[in-house]
TrEMBL record:
Matching Pfam families: LptE (PF04390)
A GO BP entry: Gram-negative-bacterium-type cell outer membrane assembly
GO annotations of cellular component type: outer membrane
Protein name: LPS-assembly lipoprotein LptE
InterPro entries listed in its UniProt record: LPS_assembly_LptE
Species name: Candidatus Nucleicultrix amoebiphila FS5
Length: 147
């Protein structure tokens, strides 16, 4: 989990995280909210609005002799922009990309729970990593701004 630099913690609580599309976006929004306000204390008067757009791609990267997938990879890309609610101008923006893979059981096991759980766990790890990186980049922005 993100450990805030002195002074950035308060700035992060002043960010309103706008709705992010899809289930992946909802999970990312929840992780960002936990990072920005670990004690649940959000600002009643936010100074910034965070917009995030997430794309996800799943690719089979390794195959068996029978052409079934042995391993898959998920790539998640998040484009974010932080807007000042006072000026309505974007003050910082960036792109974060995370990639992770998972093994897929044999054809006989393919419909089994382990393959589904492995893919689900991979997605959760990627969402956590995206949230961490976005949080660090925004904290870096606030540190520079204070500088």
């Amino acid at each position: 989990m993100y450990a805030p630099h002195h002074g950035t913690s308060e700035e992060l609580t002043k960010i309103k995280i706008n709705v992010i599309a899809d289930r992946t976006g909802q999970m990312l929004r929840n992780k960002l909210s936990q990072n920005f306000t670990p004690h649940g204390h959000t600002s009643a008067h936010p100074l910034y609005a965070l917009d995030v757009r997430v794309t996800e791609t799943r690719s089979d990267i390794s195959f068996r002799k029978d052409a079934t997938s042995r391993r898959a990879q998920i790539t998640m890309v998040a484009h974010y922009s932080l807007k000042s609610l006072d000026t309505q101008k974007i003050v910082t923006a960036g792109t974060v990309e995370e990639i992770s893979g998972f093994s897929i059981g044999s054809q006989a096991d393919f419909a089994s729970l382990p393959a589904v759980v492995s893919e689900k766990n991979t997605r959760e790890r990627l969402i956590e990593a995206l949230a961490q990186e976005i949080t660090l980049q925004l904290a870096g922005y606030f540190i520079e701004k204070q500088g």
